[in-house]
């Protein structure tokens, strides 16, 4: 008996966050001389919660299409930019020289084409007067066609060089916010290398993976709620549009749901955690609530002390849901007919007497 008491004391000493009473989940057991209260359960058909994340509907990673040193960096991470605004300029000295050479080659090709055209006209006149053979006329026509083809090739090549010269100047494809800028002034850009990430803050959404049984259940926008901890201040949001993706993940049997956020929300950024509340299809399961004072927090983990068959407290990890009126919802890790320690000190004092 002394060994059991020592183990219980050690466990109590490890947790300073255990609460004030013994809370029974889903039953009324009278064996312990400690204060207790019966659990509160209610059908989970009202709402089920799922973890999601905030995304921008338009988010673009802009990569380099050519190689060269970055000679101008007109923005920094977090800047708001307008469509068409200059973002980055890459050294285009070699490309500029190639463009000038291409234009000169086009002029030369057009001059050769004009000469071949005039020569062909003269050969036709001589042929009509009977001073030129058919073979000579054919050769003049062939020279004209070769000159014409060369001119078209030079014009196309010059256009390609001019287009590539435009790759050295990078402008914003739409108005938005610079999310990431992994390069700096003087860095060497390479084809395919990401230069920045841009997103449009005017159109944000929350995405979540939900079971296919929930996704197949018909729901209206008024039934769907959103929470963004730290941003909505415990107030729920109603999305403006709901969209279910037309495919199911074969491994998890879940469906991606996309919920558009209302416009003009402040301080909502891509990547934020969000909680999605959807009407549940099944009505057989129950929601388990425990007092928030019963939680034991260890770094990023949440747990409670549960009494086993020998009335010994065992620490168990749980996953929690929403908070409401001093109580917290237990999503997993705790079932009905289990006892949660709220004040281990009082329980130990009662056992010693």
Could you outline the blueprint of secondary structure elements for this entry?
Blueprint lengths: L1 H13 L7 E4 L10 E3 L1 E4 L4 E9 L2 E5 L4 E6 L6 E2 L4 E5 L2 H36 L5 H33 L2 E3 L4 E5 L7 E2 L4 E6 L4 E8 H4 L9 E3 L13 E8 L5 E7 L12 E6 L7 E6 L4 E3 L2 E7 L5 E12 L2 E6 L5 E3 L3 H9 L1
Parallel strand pairs: 1-2
Antiparallel strand pairs: 1-23, 3-18, 4-13, 4-17, 5-12, 6-8, 6-11, 7-10, 8-9, 10-12, 13-16, 14-17, 15-16, 18-22, 19-20, 20-21, 21-22
Helix pairs in contact: 2-3
Describe the structure.
Helix content is 27%, strand content 35%. It has five helices and 23 strands. Helix 2 packs antiparallel against helix 3. It is elongated and about 120 Å long. It starts with a helix and ends with a helix. The N terminus is likely disordered.
Task: Write a brief caption for the model.
This protein is of the alpha+beta class and 353 residues long.
Helical content band:
25-40%
| Gyration radius over CA | 37 Å
Secondary structure class reads: alpha+beta
Run of helices and strands:
HEEEEEEEEHHEEEEEHEEEEEEEEEEH
What is the number of helical segments per DSSP (H or I, 4+ residues)?
5
Strand ordering within the main sheet: 3-18-22-21-20-19
Per DSSP, what share of the residues sits in E-state strands of 2 or more residues?
25-35%
Q: What is the number of beta strands?
A: 23
Spatial gap, N to C terminus: 13 Å
Low-confidence parts = 1-45
